[in-house]
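Archive entry: two folds, one per protein. Generate the first.
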Amino acid sequence: MGLRERLGKEWFMFCIVLAIVLAKMDPSVGAKGGPLKPETTITYIAVSTIFFNSGLSLKTEFTNSWLHAASCFFCSDLNQSCWWE
């Protein structure tokens, strides 16, 4: 396996190592009040992006989820009716 194939397969690990090396060389870029503004970037943009990507990777099986939701509603309705008596 050549270097190009290896980097193509392990691109995520390569990018993490590169980000760590760049942060070690110039930590002021990500410091509080720096050009990346981590107090805003991490709090809003990064968290929103992570949840958005997680949502995109979910399978959309509407019929199975509808059946599951209906059964959950029935069970919760039955449980609450027992509690209120």
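Generate the second and append.
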Amino acid sequence: MILNPVFHKFSFDSRNFKIKPLVSRQNRPAVVAVRASNQNVHNDGFVLEDVPHLTNFLPDLPSYPNPLKKSQAYAVVKQTFVSPEDAVAQNIVLQKDSPRGVHFRRAGPREKVYFKSDEVRACIVTCGGLCPGINTVIREIVCGLSYMYGVDEILGIEGGYRGFYSKNTLTLSPKVVNDIHKRGGTILRTSRGGHDTNKIVDNIEDRGINQVYIIGGDGTQKGAALIYKEVEKRGLQVAVAGIPKTIDNDIAVIDKSFGFDTAVEEAQRAINAAHVEVESVENGVGIVKLMGRYSGFISMYATLASRDVDCCLIPESPFYLEGPGGLFEFIERQLKENGHMVIVVAEGAGQEFVAQSMPAVDEKDASGNRLLLDIGLWLTQKIKDHFTKVQKMMINMKYIDPTYMIRAIPSNGSDNIYCTLLAHSAVHGAMAGFTGFTVGPVNSRHAYIPIARVTETQKTVKLTDRMWARLLASTNQPSFLNCSEVLHHQEKAGRKTTEVINSERTTST
């Protein structure tokens, strides 16, 4: 949302975006106090959640004209630079007299930059699990720095965070990254864990790096925040920019994460394969397990897109197997009516049931994430045992787990464009002197967001929203809960998820 003309009365500083009558928040711990103060003082309730700037701790840092002023590509653009008065609203559906709410700084090129192009030494690092589009983000950061700002020195840190102090680097240029967007995975390789803030910042300082682009999930972004804090503590002119990555689409604040559209599209192949298999046999039951540790977005959207799914099970929605209204009863009814059935299950669904019948897994990965039990295999066996031993009914089970096939593919056209916008937004922000920020679309407008805002909580499917209702209407599956139970469970699950996220991250076995 662009601020309307009524805001001409406010006083703006083009560098630090100081809005005198409004409130700017840079540190999340002060959110409650600031918000209360803002609501008490300002009638319209406008709050700007600002991101840090290098001049906050380097006040004498000089600025320079943006090289885009001389760019042929941008010569035809009506407004090349983003106005310092532009902000993006977190909530766009408001009541007539309700507060305007939280806003973020709009992403894009600024009229002034705080780095000379020939003095920039940038680096890019990828951390965590694979996701479609990582190579596209790498490519567009490199090409954006080179073509838009004339930057020549760009390093790729190989092997995740530990690559900083392992001395593993790859020199990147537009020629090197020219066709990497056609490949899955990451050319820089990745890893979990290995974050040592002091070692990483020591290496950044030793190498003379002054722009750091970090691609990864919420754990990685928390690491990026620590790097920014240490850089600020040492008074270094280093811009730290995060590009959030998770295939589960569970990052808070932003509309969606890159790779999500590709994952939903590729999941259709697995669902279609399961549907073909079960349709071709008597009493065929197909189970497709998709990604989704705490959030069932991929399963929900893949189910809605497919229309071949009869039941979708996600972590946010509890279910039960036996008794009236249970999953077994629904499967039996579907087999009698249609002769086959397809179930999509997110990897984090029904973990409490699996834990009751399988030995608890106390193992963790390199990031300290507790491993999930396999709901897909467990559910397949439970359904088979019930219908063959209890119901004395012959069924044909088909189980498909396409997880690694989906993670490893290159991004589709939609995600390629999205990755380009994310990368360019990060480059513009770093060149403009912003630091300790992450980028992403908020209500379809790209914005600079404080890292703490995307790591403090996790986005989950809301069972009381219309999208879940659309799924239930599409599959005609039981909801397994009434309205009051849904509200109670969602509140309880929200508290539990936040606690788990803060203590230990979970990944699939």
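Annotation attached to the second fold: Residues 1-42, 497-509 have pLDDT under 50 and may be disordered. The chain is about 35% helix and 15% strand.
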